[in-house]
Write a structure and sequence with these properties.
The complex is a heterotrimer of chains A (137), B (222) and C (307). Chain A is α/β, with parallel strands linked by helices and 137 residues long. Chain A has 5 helices and 4 strands. The two termini of chain A are 15 Å apart. In chain C, 51% of the residues are buried. The model of chain C has no long low-confidence stretch (mean pLDDT 96). Classes of the chains: A alpha/beta (137), B alpha/beta (222), C alpha/beta (307). Chains B and C meet through helix 8 of B and helix 5 and helix 6 of C.
């Protein structure tokens, strides 16, 4: 199965910190990629609860990407560190229920470097396309 | 507080297998504080079970509720309607909560979703330590408020044993030697003389050794 | 049958005592015990019989002690409080006495997580201090822990362990005093490699007048190799093997390791004999019983007074 054939079926949810990048990035991506991308903007990435990530999968996402500020750049001091711990935990939970933890990824980004952020998102899209849909029935 | 830890999901999936409609019932006091059985954990677990079942093309309906305390009737009552609507209850309370629900609802299967680990404290965010075994006969006054029954691996009343080195227990270098702590604290308090005398064997009748315990407060029974 | 053990007699007469050790087999094979007894007989005054040491299931110390008596060796029956509650411990003390076992060493016991069955429940109903007092009350008052007057109470010679190398150091002497008060007639120490620390400990004990109240048998274990020295230092609870000892063992060729180990052991014994407050030595030649005779002879401690 080639990636172009399934690309429209693939859904990726991106939780991101409000301060990690502006809205222009989301437009940029949506224009260029044929994929169902869902951006969820949060006041601070530390608000990513375990259940939010799981529910993204429940509601049809094949992958989840969590983008947070650099640790030293977090306005709420520990937000990025907390988000990282949450993601690590949920990766374990996914593994326990035999869902490939690689469907969930986490990156620190900076609003000053939008190109790097775009690259991360694009790579995440390729990654999820390669892994394929979560439910293949 | 009572500290607990969620059971492995594989075990949970195994014990809920016979049921089609499940209520996951959280408890909003102790086990919430230790991230094992509050609203968040109920929601997470429900989501995990749904994902896992969907993956295996199995069906299950899950209801979620969290009451303040599963060990008290007033709060249990709040869940009565929801309990009546489901085939089984997966309780995320401690062992006491699980049994309290079972006592009130004789016809409903009640399953444990967590392992009750100990009576303890949150030493720092995310780290819980055991401090009390509920022996029913507190001797902390003698030991500078550090319990050797709980915190010495050998429950020594006249410790430390020969395995205490550099403040660590022989069992594991991650365990602090309770007796080193007791001696340090009593030295600081000027009460080391507490330990010069022979501390007699413990009367275990007040502990679980005496059989299941019951406390009756006549003054509160109407 | 006299009620006084050889060990007690020798210590009472002010003679320098020598004890050995016999670990019971992991099975019911009595030949192993007889073999060890033959190696030790005539070279030691009594033989410690370990009680499921390192929490590994072995023949019971009572049964192995009884076999040793038959083989002509006097046992010091070790008893740990890890596996039995007070009812069982007392019952076994009565049984042991009825079989002619006259010495007991009261211990806490290694934690079961060290052993081959870490899933076991540990008991620790009473501690080693309580066990000492229990045996003493049986002997001096003729009563069990409930206060019941026993019909022919056991009158054992009571031992306890002391580890001068465990922490907190200052408290070790207080605990020794507590053990003496509780009922200890004699003390066997952890193996000594750090002579400085041992000397410091016994000096403190001497100053407290404790060496007049109790017989102290200093523990020695001959090293077989530098590997064993490192193992003892790193893996054995409550052990203190100084770097200098390890270096010395490493400094000789592998085939000379055992010889060097025995040399160190003999030097330690010589120093111990000169140390005030030491009443004897306890040789723990772990699975190396064949060397005990050589050590005792070379140390000039033969013939044994009552053999």
């Amino acid at each position: 199965m080639s990636t172009t054939e399934i690309s429209s079926e693939i859904k990726l949810t991106i939780y991101h910190c409000n301060n990690a990048f502006g809205n222009d990035i989301t437009h940029n991506i949506i224009d260029k990629e044929k994929i169902n991308l869902k951006f969820i903007n949060m006041a601070c990435s530390s608000m990513v609860k375990d259940v939010f990530i799981l529910r993204a999968f429940e509601s049809g996402s094949d992958g989840v990407l969590v983008l947070v500020c650099r640790e030293e750049g977090c306005r709420y001091v520990e937000g990025s560190k907390r988000a990282k711990k949450r993601v690590e935990r949920v990766k374990k939970l996914l593994d326990e229920i035999k869902i490939d933890p690689k469907r969930l990824s986490f990156f620190n980004v900076s609003p000053d470097n939008k190109d790097a952020t775009l690259k991360i998102i694009k790579e995440a899209v390729i990654n999820i396309k390669n892994i394929g849909p979560l439910y293949s029935f | 507080m009572i500290v607990g830890e969620q059971k492995p999901i594989t075990e949970i999936i195994e014990i809920i297998a016979p049921y089609k409609q499940l209520l996951i019932l959280g408890c909003g006091t102790c086990v919430k504080t230790c991230f094992a059985g509050g609203e968040d954990e109920v929601a997470t677990l429900a989501s995990m079970i749904r994902l896992a079942f969907k993956k295996d093309s199995k069906e299950i309906k899950i209801a979620e509720q969290t009451v303040e305390r599963q060990c008290e009737n007033e709060f249990i009552q709040e869940a009565a309607q929801n309990i009546a609507k489901n085939d089984a209850i997966l309780s995320l309370a401690c062992g006491a909560g699980v049994q309290a629900i079972a006592k009130r609802f004789p016809k409903v299967p009640v399953l444990p979703g967590i392992n009750t680990t100990f009576i303890g404290i949150q030493e720092q965010h995310g780290i819980f330590t055991e401090e009390c075994q509920g022996c029913g006969n507190c001797g902390l006054a003698t030991f500078g408020a550090i319990c050797p029954i709980t915190r010495c691996s050998k429950k020594l009343l006249n410790g430390p044993c020969g395995g205490s080195q550099n403040g660590k227990c022989e069992v594991n270098a991650n365990i602090e030697c309770a007796w080193q702590l007791i001696i340090d604290r009593l030295t600081q308090l000027g009460q080391l003389s507490n330990l010069r005398t022979y501390i007699p064997p413990k009367n275990w009748r007040t502990s679980i050794s005496g059989g299941p315990r019951k406390l009756i407060r006549e003054d509160h029974i109407i | 049958m006299t009620n006084i053990s050889n060990l007690q007699k020798i210590l009472k007469e002010g003679k320098f005592a020598v004890t050995g050790e016999c670990g019971p087999p992991r099975g019911a094979n009595t030949q192993i015990i007889n073999k060890k007894a033959n190696l030790l007989k005539g070279y030691v005054d009594a033989v410690n019989v370990t009680d499921n040491q390192t929490a590994i299931v072995r023949m019971s110390s009572i049964a192995a002690s009884a076999h040793l008596i038959k083989a002509g060796c006097e046992p010091v029956m070790q008893m740990v409080v890890r596996d039995r509650n007070r009812i069982s411990l007392q019952s076994d003390i009565l049984g042991a006495w009825s079989l002619g076992i006259k010495n007991i060493l009261c211990l806490s016991g290694d934690h079961q997580t060290f052993g081959s069955q870490p899933d076991a429940l540990n008991v620790f109903d009473i501690d080693s201090m309580h066990l000492l007092r229990t045996v003493k009350n049986m002997r001096d008052e003729g009563k069990d822990m409930s206060g019941f007057n026993l019909d022919d109470p056991p009158r054992m010679f009571i031992g306890a362990a002391a580890n001068p190398f465990a922490d907190p150091f200052e408290y070790r002497v207080i605990r020794l005093a507590k053990k003496i008060d509780a009922g200890a007639d004699f003390i066997q120490t952890q193996c000594i490699y750090n002579m400085d620390r041992f000397t410091k400990w016994i000096k403190l004990a001497h100053e407290e007048g404790l060496t007049e109240k109790v017989y102290i048998l200093a523990g020695v274990t001959p090293l077989k190799s530098s590997g064993m020295a490192k193992y003892m230092k790193n893996k054995v609870a409550g052990m203190d093997v100084p770097e200098s000892v390890i270096k010395r063992m490493e400094g000789v060729p592998k085939e000379k390791g055992a010889e060097e180990g025995i040399k160190i052991c003999l030097e330690t014994i010589a120093k111990l004999r000169e140390t005030k407050g030491v009443h004897g030595i306890h040789i723990m030649a772990i699975e190396w019983e064949e060397k005990v005779a050589e050590i005792v002879q070379k140390a000039g401690l033969t013939p044994r007074p009552l053999s």
